[in-house]
Amino acid sequence: MASEAHEPIVKEIFIDAPPEEVFTYLTESEKYVLWMGLSAEIDPRPGGIFKVDPNTIDIIFGEFLEVVPNRRLVFTWGWKEPGHPVPAGSTRVEIDLIPEGGGTRLRLTHHGVPDSMGERHDMGWSHYLGRLAVRMAGTDPGPDPFASPEFRHR
How many CB atoms lie within 10 A of CB 39? Predict the structure, then answer.
């Protein structure tokens, strides 16, 4: 029996860049890996693939459900590895880009994460959105400690 779903994880950060620029770091594979993952295959259109390899072992896999350029992305999320507590495509991530001053308020809501994985995903999103903000400020966030094969997402 599946564990109970965690309350939605909600994260907000301010990024000192316009939504159009932030959007490219969420939808272009070569820019995505500058803040999260070792490789990515991203096809931002309804039905398009969302695939990120964070550590050469586990693969995050889903598909885009909604794409509103420079404003909103919705995609499914989970781990391709058989038997993972968050199977591929089993949860939903919504990202809204809200213009604020000369920058962007990014609001991420992750629905359907099992209770057993809620704390880990909450911490992970804080980590990665922080790396995105650093990258968007024009600085290299450095090597990702989560990219090590020793760091498993289980």
Answer: 14
Q: Which residues of 69-94 are buried (b: 16+ CB within 10 A; e: fewer)?
A: eeebbbbbbbbebeebbbbbbbbbbb
- Say how far apart CA 63 and CA 44 lie, in whole Å: 9
Residue 40, burial from CB neighbour count under 10 angstroms (0-12, 13-18, 19+): buried
| Domains of the chain and any CATH numbers | 9-142 (3.30.530.20)
47-76 pLDDT per residue, tens: 999 999 998 888 999 999 999 999 999 999
**Number of alpha carbons in the 13 Å side-chain half-sphere of residue 41:** 9
pTM of the model: 0.92
Strand partners, 67: 73
Tell me how far apart the alpha carbons of residues 11 and 30 are, in angstroms, rounded to a whole number: 24
In this structure, how many other beta carbons lie within 10 angstroms of the beta carbon of residue 2? Answer: 9
Give the span between the Cα atoms of 14 and 92, in whole angstroms. Answer: 22
